[in-house]
Amino acid sequence: MADDSTITAEDPLTGDEIEVPADVEVGEIIDSPVSGAELEVVSTDPVELEEAPELEEDWGE
Amino acid sequence: MADDSTITAEDPLTGDEIEVPADVEVGEIIDSPVSGAELEVVSTDPVELEEAPELEEDWGE
Amino acid sequence: MAVEGGSKASEGSETLTASVVGGSGFTGGELLRLLDGHPNFEIAQATSRSAENKTIGSIHPNLRGRTLRFSDPADLESVDVLFAATPHGVAMERIDAFEDAADTVVDLSADFRLDTEEQYEEWYDGHSAPEYLEKSVYALPERNRKELPGAELIASGGCNATATMLGLGPLFDAGLLDGDEQVVVDVKVGSSEGGASGGAASSHPERSGIVRPYAPTGHRHEAEIEGEFGISVSFTVHAVDMIRGASATCHVFPDGPVSKKDLWSAYRDSYAEEPFMRIASGGGGVYRYPEPKAVAGTNYGDVGFELDPANKRIVVFSAIDNMMKGSAGQAVHAANIALGLEETAGLEFQGLHPVGAP
Amino acid sequence: MAVEGGSKASEGSETLTASVVGGSGFTGGELLRLLDGHPNFEIAQATSRSAENKTIGSIHPNLRGRTLRFSDPADLESVDVLFAATPHGVAMERIDAFEDAADTVVDLSADFRLDTEEQYEEWYDGHSAPEYLEKSVYALPERNRKELPGAELIASGGCNATATMLGLGPLFDAGLLDGDEQVVVDVKVGSSEGGASGGAASSHPERSGIVRPYAPTGHRHEAEIEGEFGISVSFTVHAVDMIRGASATCHVFPDGPVSKKDLWSAYRDSYAEEPFMRIASGGGGVYRYPEPKAVAGTNYGDVGFELDPANKRIVVFSAIDNMMKGSAGQAVHAANIALGLEETAGLEFQGLHPVGAP
Amino acid sequence: MAVEGGSKASEGSETLTASVVGGSGFTGGELLRLLDGHPNFEIAQATSRSAENKTIGSIHPNLRGRTLRFSDPADLESVDVLFAATPHGVAMERIDAFEDAADTVVDLSADFRLDTEEQYEEWYDGHSAPEYLEKSVYALPERNRKELPGAELIASGGCNATATMLGLGPLFDAGLLDGDEQVVVDVKVGSSEGGASGGAASSHPERSGIVRPYAPTGHRHEAEIEGEFGISVSFTVHAVDMIRGASATCHVFPDGPVSKKDLWSAYRDSYAEEPFMRIASGGGGVYRYPEPKAVAGTNYGDVGFELDPANKRIVVFSAIDNMMKGSAGQAVHAANIALGLEETAGLEFQGLHPVGAP
Amino acid sequence: MAVEGGSKASEGSETLTASVVGGSGFTGGELLRLLDGHPNFEIAQATSRSAENKTIGSIHPNLRGRTLRFSDPADLESVDVLFAATPHGVAMERIDAFEDAADTVVDLSADFRLDTEEQYEEWYDGHSAPEYLEKSVYALPERNRKELPGAELIASGGCNATATMLGLGPLFDAGLLDGDEQVVVDVKVGSSEGGASGGAASSHPERSGIVRPYAPTGHRHEAEIEGEFGISVSFTVHAVDMIRGASATCHVFPDGPVSKKDLWSAYRDSYAEEPFMRIASGGGGVYRYPEPKAVAGTNYGDVGFELDPANKRIVVFSAIDNMMKGSAGQAVHAANIALGLEETAGLEFQGLHPVGAP
Ligand SMILES: NC(=O)c1ccc[n+]([C@@H]2O[C@H](COP(=O)([O-])OP(=O)(O)OC[C@H]3O[C@@H](n4cnc5c(N)ncnc54)[C@H](OP(=O)(O)O)[C@@H]3O)[C@@H](O)[C@H]2O)c1
Ligand SMILES: NC(=O)c1ccc[n+]([C@@H]2O[C@H](COP(=O)([O-])OP(=O)(O)OC[C@H]3O[C@@H](n4cnc5c(N)ncnc54)[C@H](OP(=O)(O)O)[C@@H]3O)[C@@H](O)[C@H]2O)c1
Ligand SMILES: NC(=O)c1ccc[n+]([C@@H]2O[C@H](COP(=O)([O-])OP(=O)(O)OC[C@H]3O[C@@H](n4cnc5c(N)ncnc54)[C@H](OP(=O)(O)O)[C@@H]3O)[C@@H](O)[C@H]2O)c1
Ligand SMILES: NC(=O)c1ccc[n+]([C@@H]2O[C@H](COP(=O)([O-])OP(=O)(O)OC[C@H]3O[C@@H](n4cnc5c(N)ncnc54)[C@H](OP(=O)(O)O)[C@@H]3O)[C@@H](O)[C@H]2O)c1
Ligand SMILES: [Zn+2]
Ligand SMILES: [Zn+2]
């Protein structure tokens, strides 16, 4: 599904090129199909991603 | 149930006095109500107990 | 670790001695647990051939720390009450010895549940001590309380039959059924019904996660139900993934019209004064109808009902713990009544919430 | 990790594009799994409002590594086939958009299963696009194969209705039932039937270990069964502790005498040529009758039966995986037929042994 | 149905009034069950905002038939003892009102477990009533019995911390550990730990059948353990498929050589007189080491150990019911001691065998 | 019912004959399932002494409808590949016969996993055919791919050892561990690990709902791990309530500082090109780390990790299906490589979601 609606960016955790929707905005959280990690969009031109801060209390106990 | 059908002996693992049937024989395996461990009767007058060798393959995988 | 004596309250009242034949089994273990915590009983003996001389806690981890050890069933001590929790056929062979050993005998097997030798020939493989059948009293107090005081031989009911009879009883008592109706009973049971000596089908990998028809037709408990109500029920039992519990869904087609009010009256009339019967029938929340896990570990019987006007059907739901109301609890309940003790003595546990598949 | 492409065999044959509306739900996820492994489909779109822009593997861990992300159901791409796996009421609202987007629409909800607007008023809350009811074809191939080739709007059946119809169908086909008989259907289902958005009653502590009457009477699937056989069934559904699976036990009281041979003929006649139907009826071993875990993960429907002469009853057992034969598998099966593909394409998984509560 | 009064024995002894704030939750429900069956307590109030005015049995089916209804936590009655079973942060906000309402307050949350405001800043989000931290007494009687008589503010321990401290305590008491050793604690817990308000991850289809790392590192209970032993433990928690139960496996690497005899002495010295501690360490049969289902529903803590000479390792196993020894049972146990009641009052249940995933 | 041939695609490519010795067991059944659906294999023989002459579907309900019957393991047919799935000790006794019957032998037991006779004396009860130890190749492709092409005797790894080695391997490969570190491995496994012939401890009532320490210390799989990495691990295995699945949590204390980036590099370097390895390490949603039910039924190995700076610890999580990656799947994977077939052939199943305790 790598068409013009997606662009590539680097997974900061793994270094892999991953596809993200072309219309992502700064601040958006995107998961990586490679690492599964949640990544925050920190810039859009080009798209740069950083590891998203963990949302502590939304899971389990 | 400490009547004349039981006598006491020492649990070699814990040092506790435990009740065992009066008619135990040398070689018999007796469990301890204190430690749960399996104990071998090594003499009967008085009753002396030792930790029974573990039966490896009778449990689980 | 100072667990000896468990929850026993020393209340000055009389103490009776009791023994459990088949104490290493599932219902035998449950009897030991109940007697251990019962204010009026002291356990004199628990038998097992395979675990002779082992402590009862080595088999039943909830009874860890007790000093009592299993002994040979051939050497029975004299006691006030003997509970037999052996496979079908054992008690009828040993009944003379049991009667010699105790004034009151409570048998959990099917050996003394039916009335006549003929019935044992039809449903089982005959009977070796038919002379006791006349004498024995069926235990289930909700249907038989008046017969129990002073009874010397008590036959505790079958678990699936108990669940069914508790569900259907009020309909017969209130005259809403008279015995010629179509009744389908679809039962779901846990794995402890099979006893401690399960085979390949009850190994964990094969028995987990199932809805398995295990008695499609012709289950022997039909005989008890027929004995009680004079009706032949269409009975099918499924094994499901729980350990304790029997749930009977009775699909009943009454001759005439029946209203929700009629049903409430019937069930209230039968059970308002019963200490162990509860009605759960609609309402809000998660637990609207009877279900096994709401009674697990307890002696409660929960019943509920719903009307299906489109099909002129009454659906009755009934849930018990087969280890308790379906066997050991029923046995102790009946013994309490037979011996003039407090009816609920030793049976007060309310059950747990939340709880999984107990 | 090089999982993209999964089990897809590239076989030179034609490739169709497909989209799944409601792709973050349970049946939607199952459709994605099946299409991902299907030799003739490529997934063009999976929609979710709540998980927009997330990868499909972030919700469905079995699809980890795929690059496809959920998109907004408001923006539908043009595809060959659109599968809708949305709650009841959504597809009837959006059917025009679905038809615009795809030549073939397969809906997994109840929105197009019944024949008339009146039925939707009786059993549901009416219908907002009744003009499509005439056009839509009920999916279940074992009862409706001839209608499917070329169908443009396919209504995949209800899971409990499917289990019931697969069990009862051969009795009607063979003339052993004609529609005026008493039929009790006692169903046991797993928690995936409730979909991904469960409430308090489906939390793990409350939902574990249960046998819970959840639709005592008046279940909507009765309408589908009545639509197929013209018979009103006494239908009761219990929730039990499994995730996948629906098991229907049908207690049937035929007018005249029926033999075991009659039953074998009936079921063999109906199902001998069916690629997904298996008869399990007695025999030895652990798995003698149909049970959900023997079909879990597969598109099989297992059926079996037993005679109860004492009560003039036939007991029919039927087991399916509600995620497969009861929804996504049935939908893909019907689409395969509608589009002239190999009937079993993408549906070959045989299931697991041993296996627990899948 | 005459269940009011439950298992309460009327014993002439004094009766204290008690209230449960957060009575609709899991540990609140367990407190209600225990108080309902406790010979010295009468329940004056149970609060819930979401279930106000409903009977307590509408949420907790084991308490069906009780007439008590939930009331607003804003209107607290005067009682002898108030138990708070609210989420972290509530008790510290309302502590003044709690202290006004009752002479003795037992809080089940983490709000008063640690000693200093700084610790709350490090491990939680600070503290709004730090002046109470000095005053509060940590509940766990096996480690803190001497501090409890007369205590006015009792902080019941964390379930995973409790399991760990019961396992490791004897090693510290006996001087086999001194605080600079490597200690890995690998915990397995049931779903009731998450409380009644579970989200998507605790729905039945997602939570069933799992071994799921849910707190890989940095679990807050580490703070309690460090507070007790002055040691930083490597702590990891897994969610597994049970409802009640916490099992801690401690992998300990002592500085010097340790024999099996040393271990037996250590554990016997610490626990021989403890009414709720049992040692299960090897032996025969099925239940050789501690496991949660052997203590489910009870206030027991089972501990056991094994030596691994090849790796100079001690493995300690510890199992509790998180609803009991890990919260409500520990709280009642501590209250019994604080108030000079029989230590085991209301906590005598021995548990069940067989039993599944309670 | 026309299931013969299952999912077999006829692809013109070569077809090899295969036999399964021990075909009535759990891993034997899994091998039959995989071979049944494999494009390059035809099953020539499946042996069982206890089920001789029965169809393979009578034991494995997922293989209903196949005509193949079990035959006597004494009469081996000539085939291209023989898979042995017998208890430890059988293959070493029969290895000459196996080698006569087939060019390639894949043994799933421990009989040929270790390198030297001495190791078998230390960890097992010696070896009766030590001359084959030199020749045999350890199967696990992720660690041993280069040795496999053309191998004639392949020893498929132990399930718990496999889970552990997949978790720890990248740390060694990347030089983050060198063999003198403290490593604790805490394993949780399902009941299928015990094989089809379970005893009392694996009956459903006793085995359900457990977290049971079953190999506190000294598990034999330590030998395989030591053989691979030259490190002695502190190994403890717990039985939990699932059927398929092994989950290893490795608590690792590296000598020097390690960053999250170092870990990502290590795992990506080792597994980026591996068709069956997936990394799940944090992120959002319900499935953040490896867990057995996310790989159940598949040949995937999921690994993940987390840093615990406070304790200078790396926690590594690893999850496999013991029936697949832990035995039959690993065996077929290795055979595919040994024989030059497509590496993933027959192993494409992606697993299910939602799914319970498969
Ligand atoms: N399980 C239920 O839910 C349930 C419900 C209602 C009624 N019942 C009835 O209760 C009875 C016991 O059932 P269960 O489930 O507890 O069975 P179980 O677990 O198999 O236990 C049977 C017990 O009887 C002993 N036993 C077997 N043969 C014996 C013999 N010839 N003489 C003396 N002792 C013998 C066994 O111990 P040793 O072999 O070591 O001596 C064992 O202690 C059965 O009749 C059953 O139908 C069971
Ligand atoms: N579960 C079964 O066993 C089963 C069997 C047979 C038939 N069915 C039928 O199949 C359908 C789906 O069931 P399910 O169990 O898969 O349900 P589910 O798990 O709740 O999933 C529903 C899906 O629909 C989406 N959705 C909800 N409202 C929507 C709207 N207004 N517009 C667009 N998308 C919407 C949801 O995602 P977002 O909210 O993120 O958009 C989600 O992806 C239902 O009609 C059900 O009756 C289910
Ligand atoms: N579950 C365990 O195993 C366990 C073990 C040890 C300690 N604990 C601790 O015990 C406490 C309770 O846990 P739980 O599992 O029982 O939780 P729970 O099931 O979620 O129950 C929380 C209760 O608190 C009430 N509540 C919530 N917010 C409130 C507020 N602002 N004011 C008054 N009442 C409020 C809730 O009822 P309404 O919303 O209806 O008012 C409910 O009754 C927690 O602090 C937990 O950490 C739990
Ligand atoms: N289960 C696992 O997760 C797992 C994982 C990795 C490795 N393994 C290894 O794989 C092997 C098989 O394990 P399993 O779990 O499949 O065991 P299982 O279920 O007990 O099956 C054993 C099979 O071997 C046959 N068998 C037993 N003794 C035999 C003999 N002397 N000669 C010929 N056939 C014999 C049995 O059938 P008949 O008695 O009817 O002939 C049965 O088919 C074991 O070595 C085990 O350690 C198992
Ligand atoms: Zn906690
Ligand atoms: Zn193994």
From TrEMBL, chains A, B:
The highest taxon in the source lineage is Archaea
Note the InterPro entries from the entry: LysW (IPR005906)
Instruction: Point to the regions of Acidic residues compositional bias.
Output: 47-61
Residues of the region (Disordered) are 40-61
Provide the protein name: Lysine biosynthesis protein LysW
Source organism per UniProt: Halalkalicoccus paucihalophilus
From TrEMBL, chains C, D, E, F:
Q: Name one GO molecular function term.
A: N-acetyl-gamma-glutamyl-phosphate reductase activity
Function, as annotated, reads: Involved in both the arginine and lysine biosynthetic pathways.
Query: What is stated as this protein's family in its record?
Result: Belongs to the NAGSA dehydrogenase family. Type 1 subfamily. LysY sub-subfamily.
Q: Which Pfam family is an annotated match for this chain, by its short name?
A: Semialdhyde_dh
Q: Catalyzes what?
A: [amino-group carrier protein]-C-terminal-gamma-(L-glutamyl-5-semialdehyde)-L-glutamate + phosphate + NADP(+) = [amino-group carrier protein]-C-terminal-gamma-(5-phospho-L-glutamyl)-L-glutamate + NADPH + H(+); [amino-group carrier protein]-C-terminal-N-(1-carboxy-5-oxopentan-1-yl)-L-glutamine + phosphate + NADP(+) = [amino-group carrier protein]-C-terminal-N-(1-carboxy-5-phosphooxy-5-oxopentan-1-yl)-L-glutamine + NADPH + H(+)
> Which CDD domains has this protein been placed in?
AGPR_1_C_LysY, AGPR_1_N_LysY
Gene coding for it = mcr
Which InterPro entries does the record match to this protein?
AGPR, AGPR_dimerisation_dom, AGPR_type-1, LysY, NAD(P)-bd_dom_sf, Semialdehyde_DH_NAD-bd
Domain (Semialdehyde dehydrogenase NAD-binding): give its ranges: 17-151
Question: Which SMART domains does the record associate with it?
Answer: Semialdhyde_dh
Q: Which GO terms describe its cellular component?
A: cytoplasm
Entry superkingdom: Archaea
The signal peptide, as residue positions, is none
Task: Provide the GO biological process annotations.
Answer: L-arginine biosynthetic process via ornithine; lysine biosynthetic process via aminoadipic acid
- The region called Disordered is annotated at 190-210
Active site (UniProt): C159
Organism the protein comes from = Halalkalicoccus paucihalophilus
Instruction: Name its cellular compartments.
Output: Cytoplasm
Q: What is this protein called?
A: Putative [LysW]-L-2-aminoadipate/[LysW]-L-glutamate phosphate reductase
Q: What is its EC number?
A: 1.2.1.103, 1.2.1.106
The metabolic or biological pathway listed in the UniProt record of this protein is: Amino-acid biosynthesis; L-arginine biosynthesis; Amino-acid biosynthesis; L-lysine biosynthesis via AAA pathway; L-lysine from L-alpha-aminoadipate (Thermus route): step 3/5
Q: Which UniProt keywords apply?
A: Amino-acid biosynthesis, Arginine biosynthesis, Cytoplasm, Lysine biosynthesis, NADP, Oxidoreductase
Q: Binding residues for NADP(+), per the UniProt record?
A: S24, G25, F26, T27, N322
